[in-house]
Amino acid sequence: MLEIHSVTTLTIAPDNENAYLNGLFKSNAVEYNANSESLTVIGEIPRDLNGVYVRNTHNQIHEPMGYYHPFDGDGMLHSAYFKDGKMAYRNRFVETTGLLAEKAAGKSLWPGLVEPQMGARRGWGAIGAMKDNAGTDVIGHAGKLLAVMSQGSEPWRLDPVTLENLGPDQNWAKLLKDGVAGEFKVDEHTGDMMFMNYPETPPYMNYGV
Question: At the top level of its lineage, which domain of life is listed (predicted)?
């Protein structure tokens, strides 16, 4: 069965020729649920392969403010869930504070990496100017998925199976006001997560476990 979960209205201008908004990089407006019956399987899925593979992508919704960089797009997770020789697929936007604000406004409210000076409102990231798109990294920790942007924001929690948005991780928000940058790692033996960020003020970089 292939099911459309939701459809988001895109406002990217048809004549926007940015290479990262066209072709293979063109934004996807649809969130899907799909199971093995609606997917083409080449070969056979091993019955003892059980688990979930999740990747994060940038998927811009609105016409960008200034020049668009491929790291600027809104976070969208794609998951492949394997169990008993079958597979299920889902994709979901990461519904951050910035994304929900732009959806309500119907337009981009924050600039991107290339022209952060265009922004008139406080944001996130190393200089506090960008949207918390949570589109760079995703990792499993303590039974939840955590998605973050490249330059640092509070991690956004999602259910690892359904991709249901569970909101920001309040414990991290209390611990680190400057958030967590992308590329954090989890020790597979201890479960400890190693992270960093690089805030605007001294010491300009933090590292922790």
Answer: Bacteria
Buried-state track 137-158, b at ≥16 Cβ within 10 A, e below 16? bbbebeeebbbbbbbbbbbbbb
Radius of gyration of the chain (CA): 18
Instruction: Name the maximum alpha-carbon separation found in the chain.
Output: 55
Domain that holds residue 62: 2-208
90-111 b/e (C-beta count within 10 Å ≥ 16 → b): bbbbbbbbbbeebbeeeebbbb
pTM: 0.89
CA neighbor of 76 nearest in space, from 98, 100, 60, 97: 60
Domain total in the chain: 1
Distance CA 91, CA 147 (A): 14
Give which of 155, 209, 204 is closest to 185, Cα–Cα. 209
8 A C-beta contact, residue 184 and residue 148: yes
